[in-house]
Inverse folding.
């Protein structure tokens, strides 16, 4: 059975194809007139038409000199090759861009390229590199552009990266939702500079790095800091754990000492940690040794926290009164209405009177919040800020049981009793 397809009688009703490689790599660097010449010539090449530069210039509405400049440009770019015939006529050959770039991207490629169809069929470096390119494209879920092929070849030739290491870098980067070839190259560069040349080297390094980053994250969370640590802070934390030998639990105790400090800082904690290290050296004890806390000490610590929270709230209230006298007037009126409301309830006065008093109190509270906000204060600025809002720093929850905060308070109390010389 034979098959055939009707041919289009006019080339102007046919199609002309352009490689995506041309669009992504060549088109951005060419002027509009040069693009006109290339695309028009592509049409002629695909349909085997003969046309002079003068005729092309007339069709495109550009000077004939511009056509000649365009051919020189495309030839220097490696997209076409011009040959002079015996009859003085010049022919233009459109080169296979994919073949050109794939050859150039292979390490060690030199000289004239003649495709045999078996370039990477054998064993050795070429096969490993060819497989690596395929695996990279599979991991990225797309084809590599010509410039990306060349950049990856540079990793092999200039950095000395192995195909194995390149694949590890690609998977590592994708795991961090980064698929840029430039980003992957930076990862490779950093690894090789650090002496990581095999997959085992990288895995060991990443395991150690993940462990450290986990510690950094825990300490930053303890301090209530949502940002990433600085290099200086990371070095300091590494010293606490790796050089001094402190456990995470002991560092947690040091961080607990920042309770009540408006701007917790690492230098403050470092002084505490250094003091503990020196003390342990003097007494010959382990740096992670802790002092037990009795319920009596724990209750005293809860009392201390409540008193501290109430004192700070009163200081904030006095600050607001001094800057916004109107707030004090509102508070006095709210207090007065509260007393009247209590009497109304005790004397069982009419519900209408009680409702009117509550509505008046609600209005005053709304006015108070508005005035605070207008003066750049949080609406709860003057309220008591307990370390644990659930139990108001009593250690007892609303059901009469132990509050969830107790274990944290015990750790803090260990530090507190030692600082204040409290004896069990």
């Amino acid at each position: 059975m034979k098959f055939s397809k009707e041919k289009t009688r006019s080339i102007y009703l046919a199609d002309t194809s352009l490689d995506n490689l041309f669009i992504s790599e060549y088109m951005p660097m060419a002027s509009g007139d040069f693009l006109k010449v290339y695309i028009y010539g592509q049409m002629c090449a695909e349909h085997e038409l003969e046309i002079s530069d003068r005729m092309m210039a007339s069709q495109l509405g550009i000077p004939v000199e511009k056509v000649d400049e365009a051919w020189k440009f495309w030839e220097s770019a490696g997209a076409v090759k011009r040959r002079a015939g015996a009859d003085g006529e010049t022919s233009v050959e459109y080169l296979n861009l994919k073949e050109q770039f794939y050859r150039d991207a292979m390490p060690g490629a030199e000289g004239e390229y003649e495709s045999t169809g078996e370039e990477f069929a054998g064993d050795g470096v070429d096969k490993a590199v060819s497989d690596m390119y395929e695996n990279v494209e599979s991991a990225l879920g797309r084809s590599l552009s010509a410039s990306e092929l060349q950049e990856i070849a540079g990793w092999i030739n200039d950095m000395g990266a192995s195909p194995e290491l390149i694949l590890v870098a690609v998977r590592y980067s994708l795991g961090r939702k980064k698929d840029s070839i430039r980003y992957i190259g930076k990862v490779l560069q950093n690894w090789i500079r650090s002496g990581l040349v095999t997959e085992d080297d990288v895995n060991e390094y990443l395991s150690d790095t993940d462990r450290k980053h986990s510690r950094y994250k825990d300490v930053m969370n303890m301090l209530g800091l949502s940002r990433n640590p600085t290099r200086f802070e990371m070095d300091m934390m590494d010293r606490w754990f790796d050089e001094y030998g402190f456990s995470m639990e002991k560092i947690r105790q040091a961080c607990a000492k920042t309770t009540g400090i408006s701007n917790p800082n690492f230098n403050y904690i470092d002084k505490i940690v250094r003091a503990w290290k020196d003390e342990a050296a003097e007494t010959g004890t382990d740096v992670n040794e802790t002092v037990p806390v009795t319920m009596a000490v724990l209750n005293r610590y809860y009392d201390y926290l409540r008193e501290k929270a109430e004192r700070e709230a009163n200081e904030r209230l006095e600050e607001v009164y001094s800057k916004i006298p109107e707030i004090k007037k509102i508070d006095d009126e709210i207090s007065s209405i509260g007393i009247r409301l209590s009497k109304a309830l005790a004397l069982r006065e009419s519900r209408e009177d009680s409702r009117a008093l509550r509505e008046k109190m609600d209005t005053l509270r709304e006015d108070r919040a508005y005035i605070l906000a207008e003066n750049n204060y949080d609406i709860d600025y003057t309220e008591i800020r307990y370390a644990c809002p659930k139990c108001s720093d009593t250690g007892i929850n609303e059901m009469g049981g132990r509050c969830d905060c107790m274990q944290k308070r015990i750790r803090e109390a260990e530090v507190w009793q030692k600082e204040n010389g409290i004896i069990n």
Observations:
- The radius of gyration is 39 Å.
- Residues 109-124 have pLDDT under 50 and may be disordered.
- The chain has 17 helices and two strands.
